[in-house]
Design a protein that fits this description.
Helices cover about 40% and strands about 15% of the residues. The chain is α/β, with parallel strands linked by helices and about 375 residues long. The protein has a single domain, classed as Glycosidases (TIM Barrel, Alpha-Beta Barrel), CATH 3.20.20.80. The site of ligand 9MR has 8 residues, from loops.
Length: about 375
């Protein structure tokens, strides 16, 4: 069966309005859901926002519980929220996030300890290297220590690289030098030796950045410091990056002796302003119909392309399942996605598996169908 027919076939056999059902051999009906279909392969995760952590919408809470077995906090663990002033932390929401994961027996991922963005302003005022080292150590050890034995893996450092593979100029690099990288991993390990420690970044399939990431991780490993994994964020498009580039990256990272996680998966279906001109994309294109071509719904042809793209990507993930620990979607439903506002504000994007009414899309069916077929091979 070709891919399109597979999707059509499975769509007809799945009841996709709320929970998907199949009839098992005993004749009883049981739910089909992503996390169970992929349970022998890798965790299926999702990024959750504040509303979702608080379970304000019961249908959404059910989706999260039924479909995913791992959660990441989309924003609330970033330093500006969890450590807003130097001498005090705010764990109100992060405790609830961890409690949600525990209630649902999920693999809980912490995002993120050291990042130049959404950074507490007080970090940027530090000019002295000892003070910076103490501040970072205190930040990392307090947070990782609080959730020791509960948070299963951490993005210890996020987005430390430029596109050419050199180290990004951040306050951490400026004040502490390159050592801030191994130190961050060392402090996280000292706070919880059992949690898995990741480096996480976007465009990790680009050759120069990939080489830079490999150099960086090797330097940390050469100091005898543990890195457990590389997070490839997976903010991808309908055509790019190619499956070959994704595959090469998974293989290259795995050859460092670490796991690979796909940490922030979404597929952008909208045109990119960078394909036209550079400059200030918001100013040039906000309100432009050309850049927001599907304000009401996604045409069937694109919906099918989108479903096939997800299927191709998951086919690759299954091929390399021994190297992949987790695949996390960057949001539950299209309405929640950051891609509605980036890089142009107020567009209507469709990057995830569930639509704005929380109904599973053809892409959802396509990756379920893939796995069911894979199993029977
Ligand atoms: O999805 C997050 C969005 O709500 C925030 O406004 C944004 C701020 O930078 O961060 C988004 O998540 C980012 C993640 O933390 C790191 N990788 C890139 C993600 C998309 O920007």
């Amino acid at each position: 069966m070709n891919t399109l027919r597979q999707i059509a076939f499975i769509t007809t056999i799945l009841i996709t309005t709320f929970s998907c059902k199949e009839v098992n051999t005993s004749g009883a009906s049981k739910a089909i859901n992503l996390k169970d279909v992929y349970k022998e392969n890798f965790y299926i995760g999702v990024a959750v926002n504040e509303n979702q952590i608080l379970e304000n919408d019961s249908l959404e809470a059910t989706r999260i519980e039924n479909e995913f077995n791992s959660i990441t906090a989309e924003n609330i663990m970033k330093s500006m929220f969890i450590h807003p002033v130097k001498d005090s932390f705010d764990f109100k929401l992060t405790d609830k996030f961890v409690a949600l994961g525990e209630k649902n027996n999920m693999f809980i991922h912490g995002h993120t300890l050291i990042w130049h963005s959404q950074l507490s302003p007080w970090f940027t005022e530090i000019k002295d290297s000892t003070e910076m080292a103490n501040a970072m150590e205190h930040h990392i050890k307090t947070i990782v220590g609080r959730y020791k034995g509960k948070i299963n893996s951490w993005d210890v450092v996020n987005e430390a690289l430029n596109e050419d593979g050199t180290l990004r100029k951040t306050v951490f690099l400026d004040v502490l030098g390159e050592d801030y990288l191994p130190l961050a991993f060392k402090w996280a390990f000292e706070a919880d030796a059992n949690t898995k420690l990741y480096y996480n970044d976007y465009n990790m399939t680009n050759e120069e950045k990939r080489k830079g990431a490999i150099r960086m991780i090797k330097r940390i490993q050469e100091k005898g410091i543990k890195v457990d994994g590389i997070g490839m964020q997976g903010h991808w498009g309908l055509e790019k990056p190619s499956i070959e580039d994704i595959e090469k990256s998974i293989l290259d990272y795995a050859s460092l002796g670490v796991k690979v996680a796909i940490t922030e998966l979404d597929i952008n279906v909208l045109p990119s302003p960078w394909d036209l001109v550079g400059a200030d994309v918001n100013q040039n294109f906000e309100g432009s119909k050309k850049m927001n071509p599907y304000p009401k719904n996604l045409p069937d042809s694109i919906q099918t392309k989108f479903a096939n793209r997800y299927q191709d990507i998951f086919k690759l993930f299954l091929k390399h399942q021994d190297k992949i620990s987790r695949v996390t979607f960057w949001g539950v439903n299209d309405g929640q996605s950051w891609l509605n506002d980036w890089p142009i504000k107020g567009r209507t994007n469709y990057p995830l598996l569930f639509d704005r009414e929380l109904k599973p899309k053809a892409a959802y069916d396509s990756i379920i169908a893939l796995k069911l077929k894979y199993k029977s091979n």
